[in-house]
Amino acid sequence: MNVEAYHQILNExxxxxxxxxxxxxKPESEVEAAYALGQRHFGENWAQEMKQKHADLxxxxxxxFIGHLQTNKIKYIISYVHLIHSIDSFKLLEEVNRQxxxxxxxxxxxxxxxxxxxxxxxxFSLDExxxxxxxxxxxxxxxxxxCGVMGMATNTDDEALVHSEFRTLRDYFNCLKKDYFLxxxxxxxxxxxxxxxxxxxxxxxxxxxxxxxxxxxxxxxxTRNA
Length: 226
Ligand SMILES: *Cc1c(COP(=O)(O)O)cnc(C)c1O
Hints:
The structure is a single chain. By secondary structure, the protein is of the alpha/beta class. The protein has a single domain, classed as TIM Barrel (Alpha-Beta Barrel), CATH 3.20.20. It is built from 9 helices and 8 strands. The protein has helices spanning about 5-10, 30-35, 45-55, 90-100, 125-135, 135-140, 160-180, 200-205, 215, and strands at about 20, 40-45, 60-65, 85, 105-115, 145-150, 190, 210. Strand 1, helix 2 (about 30-35) and strand 2 (about 40-45) form a beta-alpha-beta unit. The mean pLDDT is about 95. Pyridoxal-5'-phosphate binds near residues 152, 196 and 210.
């Protein structure tokens, strides 16, 4: 792991912004190296990989699930996951709720929004999300706690575009806060910013940055279908 980059990032970001070290595809020894420096929040994209790391590594690690979550994989993470960043449909939220109930847990979740101009990114539109939040079915969910929003900007050198996409996500957060979560203190997180754009994200109000390659180096996905 890049210890220098780790300290530099911690020094750059305000104390109120949480650094989530994205360890996907990286060996457990890398997580242990960051853990030894005091890092406790780690992000993973694949449920089975997270399950293995959770089983092998210290139990006070907070595991953040940040990748696209399929309903048939929820079972690998539901008993211990700290925060699911990537809720992108009511169907997924409902199934997380059902399995959280079976585990007698309330699981914290973020609503993922599509703010990038790229087609491939998952996420709600603001209208879709409003429809869900207004629905009777949503109000019935007792075992999930909505803690805020998450999004990804376009992968581009155009900083103005990245600024505007993150600003859009922050505006969505503010709208939802005002209309649905005003009295809810848990609804406070804006998860945005990765290695290439976390500085811009922090300028636009991010409360959680998800940084992988700056800390652990480039990833080699091999034959895995990402
Ligand atoms: C992989 C990933 C990250 C980290 O990306 P880096 O560019 O390596 O910092 C952050 N968020 C999500 C959703 C990811 O899939």
